[in-house]
Amino acid sequence: MAQSARKPRVTVGANAADRARNLATGAGLVDDPYPKYAELRETGPVHEGSISGVFDMEGPESQGWRDRRNFSLYDWKTVDAMLRDNETYSSSWYEASLGAVVGFSILQMDEPEHRRYRSLVQPAFTRLNIEDWRKRWIQPAVDAIVDGFVERGEPVDIYAELCAKVPVYTIASSFGVAAEDVPHFHELAVTSVGVIGDPAGRIRASNEIADYLRGIIADRRHSGTGDLISVLCTVEIDDPDSGESHHLSDDEILAFARIMLPAGAGTTYRGLGCLFLGLLETGQIDQLREDRSLIDAAIEESLRWEQPLTSISRLSTRDSELGGVKIPAGSVVHGCVAAANRDPARWDDPDTFDIRRPLQPHASFGSGPHLCIGMHLARTEMRCAINAVLDRMPGLRLDPDADKPWITGLLFRTPTAVPVVFDAP
Amino acid sequence: MKIHIDRELCMGSGSCQFFAPHTFDLDAECKAVVSNPEGDPSTAIQSAASSCPTRAIELVEADG
Ligand code: HEM
Ligand code: SF4
């Protein structure tokens, strides 16, 4: 990315690639984009130009499509309407970003192909199935991770030590990755999804993951073990032309498995971090201690308030109009989820993090046919992590001796850290 | 309130089930079904319907 001369206030990330990626997406450069979004919503809701352009950056959302006209949407109604109309606004936008690293995937498909693939993998992600995931993979992973630092009894940054690990460990176990390989897998996963830096290194990491997964697929073709790869080996797809059905090929399984890391790891990681920081900073964690039934609402409110992914982009396939602005065919259209989630027409006092707010859908998992397939999984991981912390870390509070953390970033929102102390259990 | 689900449109996302868990369920084909039309407060059922990614849920007021 052509970075402006501004110096970041802070660098955040799990390793060098992650730090580079965070910087490219505005971490440490843009702390509070919301007043600007409010202004754009009021004077829009649709403006020509990219979202990062508003902040004098050239972010990944317009990269790869520089020669096109860009339009950005800043209110709930327009963002939701755009995402639901996936005939006019095509997901082929991903071709230039994620597609270049992980290959063609469900995220990038348009109808009717998308619907066919989605219906194959959807059954593995129902709430009922995710409850099974919780017992088999999520809970054991969370317990093992929390054991590690609770026993030390020292101040700990739960953003790095807990939030970063839960999603990757969950996905890795669901693939059947052996426990001793998980840390290396984590490192590869983080490197493979970097947006800048050495593209060859990114592709190398991604290929190493692919090789590892190919081994697992070959194995599961012989004997299923009930993990996600086994399930994907057994599903059948109908060919619309011949009417015959066939199994997913190795490459098709691989394409889906590879998308799960970029789609499901960094997102849940940041979402968990913002949840913990929001609860600890406002003291609302005490309400959860007294009444655990508030946890689901707290998770949704935190996803609304600080969404892990702040915009979703598409390519327009034909001339259209959004919010009174003409969008020519071939334009790049960015739905600003972060602005939609704080639209005062939908939420009272939208800038306040309030876990007792009446529950209604936010845009953090997207909208329309590409609505996040991992949403029940992400919610379950977050619920498990927060329950574990409440159970195992009595008196949890922000570490008064650590640097004060904050949430930062433009395309992604991420806490700088979540440093905590707790009483001996 | 009457709840109609268009099975052709339903893509089995389970979003309705999240917002109104005592009203919606998924059947063996991964399609939404109504388990109890009054299982949740009407605001929750409205959230469920508005969250549906394919607008497969239609709500009809009983005497409207
Ligand atoms: C809090 C955590 C998460 C957030 C905020 C999030 C956000 C999103 C968003 C906004 C989309 C729609 C993208 C688009 O329309 O272009 C999406 C799709 C997707 N997500 Fe998530 N996600 C999260 C967790 C997960 C997890 C844990 C998985 C693991 C399986 C996952 C897998 C996917 C996949 C495969 C898609 C593509 C679905 C499709 O194209 O039909 N996500 N996610
Ligand atoms: S929200 Fe809509 S698509 Fe999803 S399960 Fe319910 S009816 Fe089906």
End-to-end Cα distance of chain A, whole Å, is 47 Å
CATH class of chain A: Mainly Alpha
Number of beta strands of chain A: 14
Level-2 CATH architecture of chain B: 2-Layer Sandwich
The profile of the biggest β sheet of chain B is: 2 strands, antiparallel
What percent of residues of chain B are in strands? 15-25%
What is the CATH C level class of chain B, in words?
Alpha Beta
Shape of chain A from CA axes? globular
Shape of chain B, please?
globular
How many strands of chain B? Answer: 4
**Which two chains have the most extensive interface, and how many residues on each?**
A-B, 23 and 18 residues
- Proportion of helical residues of chain A: 40-55%
Based on the coordinates given, report the CATH architecture of chain A.
Answer: Orthogonal Bundle
> Low-confidence spans of chain A: pLDDT under 50, at least 5 residues?
1-5
Residue-averaged pLDDT of chain B: 93
Low-confidence stretches of chain B: none
SSE order of chain B in H/E notation?
EHEEHE
Notes on the protein architecture:
The complex is a heterodimer of chains A (425) and B (64). Chain A has 425 residues and is of the alpha+beta class. Chain A has helices spanning 16-24, 34-43, 51-54, 76-84, 98-102, 113-121, 127-150, 158-163, 165-175, 182-192, 199-222, 228-234, 250-264, 266-282, 285-290, 295-305, 337-340, 375-392, and strands at 46-48, 70-73, 89-90, 156-157, 236-238, 245-247, 311-316, 320-322, 325-327, 332-336, 397-398, 407-408, 414-415, 419-421. A 5-stranded mixed β-sheet of chain A has the order 1-2-10-7-3, with helices on both faces. A 3-stranded antiparallel β-sheet of chain A has the order 4-14-11. In chain A, a hairpin with a 6-residue loop joins β5 and β6 (245-247). The longest helix of chain A has 24 residues, at 127-150. The radius of gyration of chain A is 21 Å and the shape is globular. The model of chain A is unreliable at 1-5 (pLDDT under 50). Chain B has one domain (2-60): Alpha-Beta Plaits, CATH 3.30.70. In chain B, 23% of the residues lie in helices and 22% in strands. Chain B has 2 helices and 4 strands, in the order βαββαβ. In chain B, the strands form 2 sheets. In chain B, strands 1-4 form a two-stranded antiparallel sheet. Chain B has a two-stranded antiparallel ribbon with strand order 2-3. In chain B, a hairpin with a 5-residue loop joins β2 (24-26) and β3 (32-34). The longest helix of chain B has 10 residues, at 42-51. Classes of the chains: A alpha+beta (425), B alpha+beta (64). At the A-B interface, α6 and α18 of A face α1 and α2 of B. The structure holds protoporphyrin IX containing FE and iron/sulfur cluster (SF4). Protoporphyrin IX containing FE binds next to α13, α14 and α18 of chain A.
